[in-house]
Amino acid sequence: MTPDAVTGLLALDRRHVWHPYAPMPGERAPLVVTSAAGVRIRLAAPFEGRPELIDGMASWWAVIHGYAHPALDAAARDQLARVSHVMFGGLTHEPAVRLATRLAALAPGDLEHVFLCDSGSVAVEVALKMCLQYWRSRGRPERHRVLTWRGGYHGDTLHAMSVCDPDGGMHGLWHDILPRQVFADTPPGGFDDPVDPAYTARLAALVERHADRLAAVIVEPVVQGAGGMRFHHPGYVRELRRITEEADVLLVLDEIATGFGRTGEFLAADHARVTPDVLCLGKALTGGYLSLAATLCTPEVARGISAGETPVLAHGPTFMGNPLACAVANASLDLLEGGAWRHDVRRVGSGLRDGLAAASDLPGVRDVRVLGAIGVVQLDHPVDVPAATRAAAREGVWLRPFRDLVYAMPPYVCTPEDIAAVTRAMTAAAKAG
């Protein structure tokens, strides 16, 4: 694009386009992307002298196989030649049936019923609706509250916002209209730190105290993502499964950010070796090509809903089970089931660990942590986002810091050289921020 064309496009963008988590009109001009391939996004105009940037964010953690992957491109083209979309009410098709069957087989335990929806937030809405309707169908409508632990993030739709962190999260504006939920303390940090029995005792007491009003407990297992990039021991998830079973409360695990290998296991729940009653998946489901999510539940939950006065789950997104998205998701699962992702995630994690080792000694750095293909530098102050972004771009990497965090969740196919660049960029961003 010519400089004049870029300027004109940005003027229209500022006038008409409302970007996420931004005012209208925007305060800062976004970068204009013209194409992407592998792990690099190409820009219409160089930024800090760079015509392309390594995507250290995997486009909000979704593009795990990289951009323009030949297998995913081929799956999309093949499905486009057949049917790109058809309504899912009263109709079905092979890509959706095959995807649901495969997800049920890959999920732990008996999570064999799959509701395909549009996005992660909707997957959480569906999960909570399942739990609420389950108890209504069993004649217990008073069980309509949800418990979670602080520090979590589950999406931007109304019910999903109600189970995000009520204080440190971004949805405090709506506290007076959101459903009132029950919040436990944030689980103690440290994936390798031993489980604190005092914390689990408090958690059990809280669940027991509210059990008669609880429909479910929902948490992000092992990694709390957009709420603060915190890691905790899988033992807390195991304890939560035991606690909810003893209290006869449903357990929902939100794996939208952690699923499909990001933490080093296929699902974060696999670290804990537990099966929830309901499981939410999204983000990397299609390798970042198209929006698609899934909510899985056990036969017990499905039977409970089906036995009620209203025996259907009254939820039906227009693009539910979209054939194009399902076909690409199947191709992404093909790549994952090839098994190379485990080696790739270990390689990425090792590179992040080595490259960030010295960052702990930087002024203003509170903590450095790595799990799977997630690297985090936590500061002791809010990040200067523009300065940190520019510093990362000068190293040839796109990062999107937030709050007090400079972090990366890069595509699994990054080379060691790519990851070295990412860690240099994270270090530069931490210094600048």
TrEMBL record:
Keywords: Aminotransferase, Biotin biosynthesis, Cytoplasm, Pyridoxal phosphate, S-adenosyl-L-methionine, Transferase
One record GO biological process: biotin biosynthetic process
Localization per Swiss-Prot or TrEMBL: Cytoplasm
Modified residue annotations for N6-(pyridoxal phosphate)lysine: K283
Catalysed reaction equations from the record: (8S)-8-amino-7-oxononanoate + S-adenosyl-L-methionine = S-adenosyl-4-methylsulfanyl-2-oxobutanoate + (7R,8S)-7,8-diammoniononanoate
Site (Participates in the substrate recognition with KAPA and in a stacking interaction with the adenine ring of SAM): residue numbering on this chain: Y21
EC number(s) stated in the UniProt entry for this protein: 2.6.1.62
Residues that bind substrate: W60, Y153, K283, G316, R400
Cofactor annotation: pyridoxal 5'-phosphate
Similarity comment: family membership: Belongs to the class-III pyridoxal-phosphate-dependent aminotransferase family. BioA subfamily.
Protein name, as recorded: Adenosylmethionine-8-amino-7-oxononanoate aminotransferase
Native source organism of the sequence: Streptomyces eurocidicus (Streptoverticillium eurocidicus)
Native organism taxonomy: Bacteria, Bacillati, Actinomycetota, Actinomycetes, Kitasatosporales
